[in-house]
Each structure stands twice: as C-alpha cells, then as structure tokens.
Write a structure and sequence with these properties.
Elements lengths: L2 H16 L7 E2 H14 L4 H19 L7 E2 L1 H12 L2 H18 L6 E2 L1 H11 L3 H8 L10 E2 H12 L3 H4 L2
Antiparallel strand pairs: 1-2, 3-4
Keywords: Calcium
Pfam family, one: EF-hand_5
Organism: Sipha flava
C-alpha cells in the first residue's frame, strides 16, 4: 500500500473519531458532547468538568478560530491543517505536549497505561462501537497486554500525523 495514501487514511480516521455526531464534520458541539461524556463516564467533579471544557474550547479557538456552531472542520480542512502543523515545529510540539494531559483524562487510575476497562470507558465516550475498529486500526493498542501506553501513543501520533511523504517512502 502507498504509505502516503495510508497516512491520509489514518488522518481520516482521526477526523472520524472526533466527529461525535457522525455528520461528516467536526464542530465545537462535537467537542462539547465529547467533554460531557468524558466528564460523566470519568465521574469528574463539576470543577474538573468545567476546567476540561475550557481547555477544549481554548484548543478549538486556538486551532480553528471562532467558537460558534456554524464553524466546522471538514476532512479536507483537517488534512490541510495537519500539513500546516507538520511544517511548524512550535505547533508540532504543542500537539505532543497536549497528549499526556489527554492521556491522563482516560487513564483514570493514573497507572501510566490505559487498561481494558479504561479503554472501554473511552469507547463509551466516543459513541459507537464501530469507532473501536478505527482505534485499533491506528495501532495504538499494545498487542502484548492490550493496554495503551503513553509512549506508544506519542510514537503513533508522531509517526502518522507528522510523517512527511519523503519519510513515508523510506
């Protein structure tokens, strides 16, 4: 398979994961729904939930602009943005620095890895069971113990999101 085509396919899968209501675009409403689900499933306090919501809204504003229901991210816009991020070391570093925070949101017991139970709760937050196959196809789950480790997650993100076409051909 063409590595560049595979890269686009993986990015499409990431976009699909974020499209919580499955309407083909990602909006702030998808992010708010995801935040609400994470808060409920992870038994967050009202304060934790509010803080998480603010972080997600700040990220949206920083990367996508104004916060309104009519501002949306298509697959094409997402792919273009990732291309832009790939060329900007500061933005790449920001994405990587965000991963431990998001990982800890799912790693409820703070063990350093996401267990099957935590993973199932994460899937519950994502919505449908067909997203389970998407996550597995991204290569994030450790085959030996069926957990997700932060280092593996960072490695996969760096490999698939920030890989240049020239690097993919090697």
């Amino acid at each position: 398979m063409d590595p560049y085509k595979d890269w686009n396919s993986k990015l499409n899968a990431y976009h699909e994961l974020l499209d919580i209501n499955n309407d083909g675009v990602v909006t702030i409403e998808d992010m708010r729904e995801l935040t609400k689900r994470f808060s409920k499933v992870n038994n967050m306090t009202e304060e934790q939930s509010l803080m998480f919501s603010k972080i997600i809204e700040n990220l949206w504003y920083k990367h996508w602009g104004c916060i309104n229901p009519f501002d949306y991210v298509t697959v094409e816009k997402y792919l273009s943005y990732i291309q832009y991020v790939k060329q900007n070391d500061r933005l790449k570093n920001e994405v990587i620095q965000l991963l431990p925070f998001l990982f800890k949101t799912v790693d409820k017991d703070q063990s350093g890895h996401i267990t099957k139970e935590e993973y199932d709760k994460f899937l519950e937050c994502m919505g449908t069971s067909n997203k389970n196959g998407l996550i597995k196809s991204l290569g994030i789950i450790n085959d030996k113990d069926h957990t997700i480790h932060l280092d593996d997650l960072i490695s996969v993100i760096q490999k698939f999101l920030f890989q240049n076409k020239d690097e993919a051909d090697k």
